[in-house]
TrEMBL record:
This is Homoserine O-succinyltransferase. It is an enzyme of class 2 (transferase). Transfers a succinyl group from succinyl-CoA to L-homoserine, forming succinyl-L-homoserine. It is found in: Cytoplasm. Gene3D superfamilies: 3.40.50.880. Substrate binds at K163, S192, R249. The record marks A111 as: Important for acyl-CoA specificity. Pathway: Amino-acid biosynthesis; L-methionine biosynthesis via de novo pathway; O-succinyl-L-homoserine from L-homoserine: step 1/1. The active site is at C142, H235, E237.
Length: 309
């Protein structure tokens, strides 16, 4: 089944070219089915690229999904046309009264700022608290995952001296959890971040379970026992060339970046890339939609119960 997006969203042409089934709103309106309502709070500078990455992962499900793209403020992002934002994005205030089956909050390039120094931190905390009341299950990615863990549980990240960047091996910690269904015991996932939270920080938080971790990256996938919150500290949504683009961008900016580990063959940027994470990235989003969202959400979203951490 398709995801439902605005007819003129640029992602539609890209996804159609990949034989991914997307449906415009006019066609979807004639289907007698209650679709899932999923919001995407996109904090990344290149909105269009991130839209395509996440929509691709959401599309591999038999469920029909209505997508709302949400912006956190009215500032024009550097790498996305204003016309695109005006045409396809909702201001948070315009959807604040709505309830969602699922919400995805992307990462953001805010590695070296204290959370309280982020210009939209107050709005971010408002949205996170709102999601606990208005959303069945919320998935936080990379920076947003650490920010949400800090907000809800008071666990602060520490900053590495060097950037953790590359494709790393992870191990499933609880293969009985529905989010891990179908996962191999060991799987790969990309990371690109400075922040980290050690596994020991979660030991005393009874509401959370670490579902997958790595000796190199620390906890990768953490979820609340009520399935309302999911924290992913990496980037399962990344395209095959995203880390490559980030690397050469930083080279051209004179930042002398580290070569992403285990990404280029023999860690040589002139070689081909090892793309080993996409199947598990798709499976993660599919499991989340099925077991954490669809299987638990009420048919009438107005009856969605509040939850407190």
């Amino acid at each position: 089944m398709p995801i439902r997006i605005p007819a003129d969203l640029p992602a539609q042409e890209i996804l159609n070219g990949e034989n991914i089934f997307v449906m415009d709103m006019m066609r979807a309106a004639h289907q007698d089915i209650r679709p899932l309502e999923v919001g995407i709070l996109n904090l990344m500078p290149n909105k269009i690229e991130t839209e395509v990455q996440i929509l691709r992962l959401l599309s591999n499900t038999p469920l029909q999904i209505n997508i709302d793209l949400i912006r956190i403020d009215n500032q024009a992002p550097k790498n996305t046309p204003k016309a695109h934002m005006d045409a396809f994005y909702h201001a948070f205030d315009d959807v604040a009264d709505k309830r969602y089956d699922g919400l995805i909050v992307t990462g953001a390039p805010l590695a070296h700022l204290e959370y309280e120094d982020v210009k939209y931190w107050d709005r971010m905390t408002t949205i996170m608290d709102w999601a606990r009341r208005h959303v069945q299950s919320t998935m936080f990615l990379c920076w947003a995952a650490h920010a949400a863990i800090y907000h809800f549980y008071g666990i602060n990240r520490r900053l590495r001296e060097d950037k953790l960047v590359g494709v790393f091996s992870h191990r499933v910690q609880d293969d009985k959890n529905e989010l891990m269904r179908g996962f191999d015991p060991q799987f790969d996932a990309p990371h690109s971040r400075y922040g980290e939270i050690p596994a020991s920080a979660y030991d005393d938080v009874e509401e959370l379970e670490v579902l997958a971790t790595s000796a190199h990256t620390g906890p990768y996938l953490i979820a609340s026992l009520d399935k309302r919150l999911v924290f992913v500290t990496g980037h399962p949504e990344y395209d095959p060339d995203t880390l490559e683009q980030e690397y050469w961008r930083d080279v051209q900016a004179g930042l002398a970046p580290k070569v992403p580990q285990h990404y280029f063959v023999n860690d040589d940027p002139s070689n081909d890339k090892n793309v080993t994470w996409r199947s598990h990235g798709t499976l993660l989003f599919t499991n989340w939609l099925n077991y954490f969202v669809y299987q638990n959400t009420p048919y009438d979203l107005n009856t969605l119960s509040s939850s407190s951490s």
